[in-house]
Structures are given as structure tokens and as C-alpha cells.
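Our collaborator T.R. sent over the components below with a one-line note: 'Predict the complex.' Nothing else. No constraints on interfaces, no templates requested, no preferences about which chain binds where. So this is a plain run: every listed entity goes in together, and whatever single assembly comes back becomes the starting point for the next discussion.
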Amino acid sequence: MKDLVKKLSESFGPSGSEDQIRQIIRSEVEQYADEVRVDSMGSLICRVAPKAAAPGAAAKRIMVDAHMDEIGIVVSYIDDKGFLRFSPVGGLNPHVLLGQRVVFGNGVVGVFGTEKLDDIKDLKFDKMFIDIGARDRAEAQAKVRVGDAAVMLASFADMGCRVSGKAMDDRIACAVVIEAMRRSRPKLHEVYYVFAVQEELGLRGARTAAYGINPDVGIAVDVTLWGDTPEHAPFNVSLGGGAAIKAKDSSLIAHPAVKNLMIDTAEKNGIPYQLEVLERGGTDAGAIALTREGVPSGTISIPCRYVHTPAEMVDMGDVDACVRLLAAMVEELASPAGGGIL
Amino acid sequence: MHLADARGVTGYESPAWDGVNSLFADLVDEIRRDPLGSAIMWKKGAAKEPPARIMFAAHLDEIGMIVSKIEDEGFLRIWMMGGVDRRILPSMEVTVHGRRDLHGVIGAIPPHLQDSSKKDKSWKWDELTVDCGMPADRLRELVRVGDVISFDRRAIGLANDRIAGKSMDDRAGIAVMYEAARELQKLSHDCDVFFVATVQEEVGYGGGITSTFGVMPDIGIAIDVGHGNMPGVPEHEALKLGGGPAISFGPHVHPHIFSKLKETAEDRGIPYQVEPGTSPRGTDAYAMQMTRSGVATGLLSVPLRYMHTSVETLSLGDVKKSGQLLAYFASAVDSRFREGLTCF
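Returned assembly:
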């Protein structure tokens, strides 16, 4: 599992430029899916057919979603000395970028520099630039074009029971979904495993994927914040506390039936869990829930420290709990009782 | 008043649903709930050809709170469900909807003990807790993080047909639809009328988005509340309590719907006010207007004071007149009016 997490974490896939990460995920999941397609936004949609068709009625559709895009930057201007100006892609804090390196899709590496500042509090993106080691504009343009996106350059660190790296948001969830796909085969109903694009730009890939799939229930898997480091704001989620079951964030009020099924399923299977009310932030479930006539939806969250930095950290015990909970949820929903929802 | 007293915190509207169901059961032909929970109550029209479809939408949900953490000392940390003004929270009595309903109170640090620099400032969310009088271990048996909390406040009657209570935003709108449905029993109408009690309006009109997708109306009219006159609110920004329904106009409203509502009010001698909309957002009208290939929308506002407090105050006469106006409007809509909606 750690090998998969390392591979996904270190791959390239800023929002809107997900070609590389999509290829990597596709090669991991193709063998478990009955049909794999990519929608016009670029989301990877894997359909897994049931062992047996639902008797009488048409099969219902279960949508499981993790987003494969990551935050990054996009080049907005190249000056005559070969320095790049840039804009953030997704929610990025300029202070996080100091001393960091980025890598473009073609492997070109850049480092961040800043203009002269009277006070570090004045640091904004427009006071920063990227230096790719070019001596002038022509040399820079031979390597990078305006509109090219880059991601943080950060290697995966195995710390034992915890691991750290860039893009754990949301590649750790991609790993959870891939592993759950390996473990479960629905009895009834179809399961659509979606690796969505452009979540960091406003849940955009999940919105169109859900419209296309027209699911009867939706589960997003994403990271959430943490409340267990020194002098942190109160938050009911700790690293190592198990899978986090979301009640609310700013994009979604988890459907009570879906939330309760997650709690009951975790208890029935002895899976450690914690309950989450997130003040700010959203997940793809917010988009899925408002699709067409509405879709009962919920989110399984992986607790993650230092979200939206190159050093996001997760606990592999929590990851395992999330895999087990997701696989058990799919089995509950795809059973004749439909988890009381389908 | 019963409608206002029912509990239906946004996302958890089911407890408020029973009352609505029993009010409308005899007034409409069919009731269903969509997957998100909005109630769609259909009264069929008399037209032989495919009838025009009118959707009236008032939201069922109310603002409230959610348990975000249970502290070892037995206090519940809370977070808002919808736009809760935290200045009003200290001294509020609440119900925590746990395994069973529990009474709780929201206290505050007494001024004697408070840092003097903070005395004139509003409380922060992490300074507000709910006290149910229980130790943490007992509390954890009955309450989970993610359980919702509603305001404990019964509606009361004031003078001059005014009432005050929690969640008049937007149970007043549900009451308007009820009045309209009753009035419509006495009238003939060609069009199909859908009375929709939407969910999750307070967190981004989710129910308005999904129910409109399902109903596919030609015309959608949201019924919500507008700011009533009171000291400190400039006259030009306020609606007059008792002045009748406010008919809204602006980019969120189809000009023909605005004119037709005004015309109907004038023909029937119903007093009304007009309310300019400065932003298209903020009500279910926005959700309806932007659904599928677009819906011709209107917005009717019931004047209401002290929005998003537990003493939201309105005039029952305004509610009644709003309902009458909607019924006469529905009765006056025919296929010619519908066809005219795309003639600019």
C-alpha cells in the first residue's frame, strides 16, 4: 500500500492538467473494472458490474469518488530575464512556497524567489516569481510556456506508521478507493469509481461525472483537517483516530441516512472512526448531492495534517480504516437491503 | 405558529415535515419527497392540452447549530448550520437532538471575569458552548458529534396580528403556500401548481436546485422573507410590516412575472409593495432561475423584522394576502401567458 501511496503522491496532476496521474491510476484500476471511460472534463470513470443483476428492477448506481487533481501554480508571464510570474491553482498560501521547488509536467524544475519586502507579512503571489535557471526569456520559453502548470516538488517520506508527501490531498483517497476496488465486488447494483478532475477549483469534475452517471447514492473520499497538534484550534479529528465520518462541511450536510449507515457499518465491523464537523472546506460530495434531482451523499475523510503544503501527513492506520469502511459501505449498499438507502 | 415551532434544522428537516404534510394532504392531488428531502405537492390544473407548470417554493429548513466536539468537562462545542448570528447566542435555550432530545443552554463568561478588552466584542464560535448539565461520559452516551441543535423558542402573539418566533424565515413562506392552496380550492386554474417545501436553502439553496430539476416548471415563484421596517434600518431598504406582500424585481425576476403579480394584486385590490433585488442570489429564486434551460422566476417577500434571530416578527395579514395573491396569479396564468414568457 505504501508503494502505491508513494507513486500517487509523487505523480504530476495539477487541476486541469491531470493526464499523467490519470494514466497512472488507469493502469492500476483497469483490471478491476468492467468498463473504463473518461468524460469530456477528463475524469476517469470505472464501472464495476454486480455479480448478479438486481431481481426485477434495474440496477441502482453507487458513485464512489476521489479527486486526482492537486494544487499547484500556473505560469502567467515570462519576463525578459527569464523569470516566471505565476498564479495559484487551488487554495495555496504564498508563505508555504518560500524555499520550495516546483516541477512542470515535462520535468523542468523551478525555485521560488521573492521581491524585496519590508515585512514578510507583505508576501503575496504578485511579489513572487519562479526561477527555472534560465538566463533569458528565450531560454525560459524553450522550456516552459505561459499557461503551463507545475506542482510542488517533494519526495515521499516513510515515517513508519505515518507517511508524508505532497498531494496526499487527494491521492491518499485515490489509494483508498483503488484498494477498496480490489477488495470488494458488489453483489447487486453497479458501482462507479470516479477519479475526478478539478476538485481544487470548485468540485468541477465530480459535478459533471455525477450528472453523467446519475447515481442513487454518492460517497466521496477526501482528506480532512486535524485538531491534535500543539495549540491547535479545537477540532474533533486526530491522526490515528480512525476513519473520519463527515457530518458537515461548507459544501455539504451529509445525508443523515448515509452518515448513519457509515457509523453503523464502522461499529458492526469494528472499524475505528471519528465524527467530523469541518468549519471550512468542501469535498466532491457537495457537488454530487446537488446533481439532477438530488443524491443522498456522504464523505469518508482521511485525517491529514498540514493540508495544502508539500508535507501533508497521514496515518496508515487511518488509511486502512478508510479502506475497510469504504469496502464495507459498498457491500452494504450493494446488498439486497441496499443499506436502507437503495 | 405551529409551523414556526416545528424543528427542521437545515439538512435535518424531517421533523418539520409531518406538520406540512398534514396541512397540504387534502389540498393537493399528489405529494412526494425528492432524494434530498424537498416535498413536492402537486395540484393538477384543468387544462386539456399540456398545462403550464407553476412551482411555488418556500423553504422548510431553519438555521441552527451542530455539535462539533464534546469536551471532557461536559460542554458541547458548536458550529453554525446556515447563517447564525453568534451575537444572539448567549442566554439562548436550545434543544440538542441526540439519541433523545436534551435541553441545553448557551452560557457566556460573566462580565466580572471577562478580559476588559473583549467586553464590547462579539463572541467567537470557540468561546460558545452548550451546557446540558451532564458529565461528559453520560453526554457522550446520548450525543454524538454531528447531532443538530435547534433554538427553543415558542412563537408568541403580539398586538395587531403580529407574531414573533424562531424560523418565521421561512415557515412564513410555507404558510403563504398553505393560504394559496386553500384559496385555490375556490378558484379554477388551467395550470398545474406545484407547492414545494425546499430543504437546505440556508446552506446554498440545495433543495431549490434539485426540486426544480425534478419539477421542470415553466414559472417558478419563491416565497421568502424580506427585511421589515425598524429603527436603524433606512426606509428605502425596508418593507413595511402590514403593508402587504413585497413583489421583487431585478435580474433574478422575469419582467413578465413581476408585471403579472402587480397587475393581479391591483385587479384584486390586494395591497402590495415592490422590492428591488440588488443581487440575484440569496433565495430559491436564484436556484430555480438557473436550472436546466432556465425558468421564468418571481419572488414574493413577506416583510419580517429581526431576521435570523429567535424573535423574527411578522404580520399575519401579510401572510394571508400573499397567499391570496399567489392563488389569483395561478388562476390567471394560461398558455398564452406562458408562450409570452420568451417574447421580449
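Summary for T.R.: Chain A has two domains: 2-70+166-340, 72-152.
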